[in-house]
Design brief:
The chain is mostly beta strands. The protein is about 10% helix and about 45% strand. The chain has 6 domains: about 1-195, no CATH class; about 200-225 and about 245-355, Immunoglobulin-like; about 365-510, no CATH class; about 520-665, no CATH class; about 675-865, no CATH class; about 870-1000, Immunoglobulin-like. The strands form 16 sheets. Strands 2, 3, 5, 6, 7, 8, 9, 10, 11, 15, 16 and 17 form a 12-stranded mixed beta sheet that branches. Strands 19, 20, 21, 23, 26, 27, 28, 31 and 32 form a 9-stranded mixed beta sheet that branches. Strands 49, 50, 52, 57, 59, 60 and 61 form a 7-stranded mixed beta sheet that branches. A hairpin with a 2-residue loop joins strand 8 (about 95-105) and strand 9. The longest helix has 22 residues, at about 30-55. It comes from Odoribacter splanchnicus. This is DUF4988 domain-containing protein.
Length: about 1000
């Protein structure tokens, strides 16, 4: 005995006011005992569900997973709960129902239709005075499938099954947002789950594109030539059908804008068209008067609010033409416990966009290529191969709207897509709709139209038999006799305002017994071989070899394919780049490409083990290749090679072989350290960070010490700061890494980017420090007033190598050019803080004899380049109101010192010549008093400076300053600052020298 049960997955969704569709899953007959077990399992799951949630509960989320048959419910508080619903369905066919509601005044009509569109029942509800509007959240399902509104029967009932069957009903509101679920099993009381909706908190604009870097939406105007199409049917011969072009029309539909709701489950019931407003401004961008932008419609789907709005003609500003841009922000008014709330989105630009060349295209192939466009005449479609197939016994048919999309060109000839596919209904927002028609044509000696063997209901195409050689109404008998027929569908895009045909396409289908699959290339087998040889960073061995013996080839390839050695070698050939070396591929699919860089060498070899020659594979990886892979963090190396068989039907069959080296032991991180100790560093040459006190952070470089044969060169051997002029590398694990013993290490010094890259120059400019790619040059680039780099750039310091040095690039030479001098002379030798004395950073790199890196800790240090000479103020002073002014020899107000603090006068007069002091200058207009210019603060006073010469400077004569004041008496001493500028061998620097002007004599 057999018994039948049904499983319904019921979808309740909005149409006009509210709509519901009910879709049953596949049913099938089965043995009664097995069926009863499944029904018992369903009963148990539903009993648990009823116990947890009762007849009505408010929850956060409900999810049904058909593949695992699990129902997951997230309560208002707490964690998700999962119920496994056993499969208790049978095979009676698929029945679909639709529940539609339409409100006229206070009367709401609920119409229940079957899948053929036939009305099952149409009860009405009279709404009370309050609330005045139909509220979809109050719609539930009661016992025996009764549809209830606010707990009261509506008179509409869902179809009932004769024995226990389960329904899961998804309820959506008028905007298409899911607001609840009803779960029912047989005659048991259903469980109604209502989703909790959050209050709207924010709106985030979803840009269509970016307009000059601004998030933007398009205000489209569509241009097209109206097409005229003959009236057609599925029975007669319309094989020459095509459109006739007419005059050009334009269509400017509503603006369409999309916004993410925050939160995504915001209560859609709070959203009303009359409470939505756009605020508009012209920016650029400058503000201008507001515009009226009227919201005409909206909908919500999956947390996205789509708003349509009308625009005033000519209101849009264009950045390039007007210097302005029109921007819109959406405001939505809602209510909450505290009263009215106004939510405002971010502003987005609105760009007028002309759209032309509108065509219909294959929705599955994107929109970048024109070859995806459908043909535009019946003759072309008939001559071409069928583009899609439809099974003869597909009772529901296929939705042609899933196959079609609309493409166009914008004003810049950029190809765009107006919708992903026709079924999304997005095209309506642009003022268009699709129309689907079967168009008859005869093929061969057949007197019956190919298209008569199908019928359409809207966009649904269904194969079915003819009657007396003519098409039958949708839903007629299906029979294998229709196999091989090729119905032709004409799709038109209609301008709904003018009722013009905008674009047309013809698509030929083929009715088949099963899904027809053209012969294609195929991967028959992927053989994987793994090698676990140990890898340690080092110079030996020169390479690693991974051969496959005949046994591995036989078991991994021949046996897997159930082929003999002779069969396989006779049919499949390896792919070489040069025999015997094999090509390598990116993956193991039919679309695999040749790699751009091969890893090692894979080759064909022969193994004569057992007295029989067998082709085998071998893979050789060089030491350098292995190092590059594993030192970069990889734990395995892999290549893919393949065999190919070329078939008689022009297809290829592939057998891939993956060779993987996954070392059982990886030693790829040799380390060492440069220690801060007396065995490594000459401690007296090292300083604390930014200080003149001992430490191990930085070193200070200077010009050579004055002596008879010296020329004031600025160069240093970096190795001088290391003990014995050798860089000692400590803490290396020599046992694990024998290639990194001290005698095998190669060391080098390089510049790396310093901590402070923006530095000041003595010329009042700013510079940016950088390092050359090879690390041998420290550069400085002049910055403009906005801090941007200019084309003016020069080297500051350069590294080179001396003979027999323990490390290369050990010799640093400071450069003799204007930029190098400017950054050197910004600060004196005692100014060691941040952004004062020029500071570079040097790094010690260490490798072994085969250029493999040793990771060295504490391998960087700072180098400060000390300014060779400076000026220090002394106690010289001026006196106000002296006859003919007060004179002061500048040598009595300041003294020269070098980087060691040694004074030039009187003991080291030769320093003037050694350091090449050329000029001393004072710009008297820039003399300062109390942080302001003297001439601005006290213009009655004047300071003169009698300049000196290079020869006089060498004898200690720096010139004379004279103070004049023939005005008011000074009641107290004042201090002026002289801007002394010195030019010498290594550049120019400025030092403010303070000089006291004593109060007026006798005061």
């Amino acid at each position: 005995m057999r018994q039948t049960t049904k499983f319904y997955a019921v979808l309740l969704c909005a149409a006009l006011g509210f709509s519901t569709s009910i879709q049953s899953c596949k049913d099938y007959d089965d043995d009664i005992d097995s069926l009863n077990k499944r029904i018992d399992a369903v009963n148990k799951s539903l009993e648990d569900l009823k116990k947890d949630f009762g007849a009505l509960a408010f929850v956060k989320d409900v999810k049904w997973d058909e593949s695992t048959r699990t129902l997951t419910i997230t309560p208002a508080t707490g964690n998700p709960v999962t119920y496994t619903i056993a499969d208790a369905d049978t095979k009676d066919g698929n029945t679909q129902y639709t529940l539609e509601t339409k409100a006229e005044g206070k009367t709401v009509t609920i119409t229940l239709k079957n899948d053929k569109g036939e009305v099952i029942s149409a009860p009405t509800i009279t709404m009370p005075d309050t609330p005045a509007e139909f509220d979809g959240t109050k719609l539930t399902i009661g016992e025996k499938g009764a549809i209830l509104y606010d707990g009261e029967p509506t008179g509409a009932t869902l179809p009932q099954v004769t024995i226990p069957g389960m329904t899961i009903t998804e309820i959506k509101d008028a905007a298409g947002t899911v607001i609840g679920y009803t779960i029912k099993y047989g005659d048991n009381e259903p469980v109604n789950l209502k989703l909790i909706s959050e209050k709207l908190q924010g709106l985030v604009f979803i840009p269509d594109f970016y307009y000059q870097g601004i998030e933007a939406m398009a205000a489209n105007t569509f241009y097209y030539k109206a097409l005229t199409l003959p009236t057609v049917n599925a029975n007669d011969d319309f094989s020459t059908d095509k459109a006739t072009e007419g005059k050009t029309f334009s269509l400017t539909p509503n603006l369409v804008a999309n916004y993410h709701l925050n939160p995504s489950n915001a209560a859609v019931s709070d959203l009303k068209k009359e409470n939505m407003f756009f605020i508009a401004e012209d920016k650029a961008y400058t503000k201008a008067g507001a515009h009226n932008v009227e919201v005409t419609d909206f909908k919500v789907n999956k947390g996205v609010l789509t708003v349509q709005a009308g625009l005033n003609k000519g209101m849009l500003k264009d950045i390039e033409k007007d210097g302005e841009v029109t921007v819109l922000a959406l405001q939505v008014g809602t209510k909450n416990a505290e009263g009215d709330t106004l939510i405002t989105s971010d502003y987005a630009a609105v760009k007028a966009r002309e759209v032309k060349n509108i065509v219909l295209a294959d929705a599955a192939k994107g929109y970048q290529a024109t070859e995806v466009h459908f043909v535009t005449t019946a003759a072309e479609a008939i001559a071409n191969d069928p583009q899609f197939t439809i099974l003869w016994d597909n009772a529901k048919g296929i939705d042609v709207a899933e196959l079609v999309a609309t493409h166009a060109d914008d004003a810049d000839s950029k190809h765009i897509s107006l919708d992903e596919k026709a079924s999304t209904d997005k095209i309506k927002a642009y003022g268009f709709k699709y129309k689907y028609e079967l168009i008859g044509y005869l093929a061969g000696d057949n007197k019956t139209s190919q298209s008569a063997h199908a019928a359409m209901n809207g966009s649904i195409l269904r194969a079915q038999t003819t009657q007396n050689g003519l098409q039958q109404a949708f839903g007629a008998e299906q029979n294998r006799s229709t196999i091989g027929r090729m119905p032709l569908v004409r799709i038109s895009l209609i301008d709904t305002a003018a009722n013009n045909v905008v674009a047309v396409a013809y698509i030929k289908f083929k009715i088949t017994d099963k899904e027809e699959v053209a012969p294609v290339d195929e991967v028959l087998h992927v053989a994987n071989f793994t090698f676990n040889d140990k890898y340690t960073v080092g110079c030996t061995p020169a390479s690693y070899n991974f051969p496959l013996n005949w046994a591995k080839v036989e078991e991994g390839i021949y046996t897997a394919l159930n082929m003999s050695k002779e069969e396989f070698e006779g049919e499949f050939k390896l792919e070489f780049y040069t025999d015997p070396n094999l090509e390598q591929f990116t993956n193991t699919t039919i679309n695999a490409q040749k790699v751009t860089t091969r890893l090692g060498i894979a080759s064909r070899k022969q193994d004569n083990t057992g007295g029989e020659m067998t082709d085998v594979l071998a893979w050789e990886v060089s030491q350098a290749e292995a190092y590059n892979i594993f030192s970069a963090g990889a734990t395995e190396a892999k290549i893919i090679v393949r065999f190919v068989r070329e078939n008689a039907n022009n297809t290829k069959h592939y057998v891939y072989v993956t060779l993987t080296w996954k070392p059982a032991e990886l030693n790829v991180e040799p380390t060492g350290a440069i220690l801060d100790d007396a065995n490594t560093k000459f401690t007296s040459a090292w300083f604390a960070e930014d200080k003149g006190t001992p430490g191990f952070y930085e070193v200070h470089f200077n010009v050579e010490v004055p002596k008879t044969d010296a020329t004031c060169k600025f160069e240093k051997n970096i190795l001088d700061v290391f003990v014995g002029q050798k860089v000692l590398i400590s803490d290396v694990d020599k046992t694990t890494y024998p290639s990194f013993t001290a005698d095998k290490l190669v060391k080098e010094f390089v510049f790396v980017t310093p901590d402070e890259t923006i530095v000041s120059g003595s010329d009042d400019n700013s510079y940016k420090l950088s390092v050359s790619t090879d690390g041998l040059t420290l550069n400085a680039t002049l910055l403009d007033q906005n801090g941007k780099e200019t084309a003016t750039k020069d080297a500051v310091a350069v590294l080179s190598t001396t003979t027999d040095a323990d490390a290369t690039n050990n010799f640093v030479t400071y450069q003799d050019n204007d930029i190098a001098k400017a950054v050197l002379n910004y600060a004196g030798h005692l100014a060691l803080g941040k952004n004062e004395t020029l500071t570079a950073k040097v790094q010690v790199n260490v490798v072994n004899g085969c250029d493999q890196k040793l990771d060295v800790a504490n391998n960087t240090f700072d180098v400060k380049f000390l300014r060779p000479i400076s000026i220090e103020a002394t106690d010289g002073s001026l006196e106000d109101a002296k006859d003919n002014g007060s004179d002061l020899a500048l040598k009595d107000a300041m003294q020269f010192v070098d980087w060691r603090g040694f004074e030039f006068v009187p003991d080291n007069m030769n320093y003037f010549e050694y350091y090449g002091v050329e000029t001393i200058a004072i710009n008297v207009d820039d003399i300062m008093l109390g942080g302001k210019k003297l001439k601005d603060v006290y213009p009655a006073a004047r300071v003169d400076y009698s300049e000196t010469t290079t020869d006089k400077i060498a004898s200690g004569d720096f010139g004379t300053i004279t103070w004049h004041n023939n005005s008011t008496a000074l009641s107290a001493d004042i201090t002026i600052e002289l801007p002394v500028e010195v030019t010498y061998k290594w550049g120019t620097f400025k030092v403010p020298v303070p000089v006291v002007v004593k109060k007026t004599i006798g005061q």
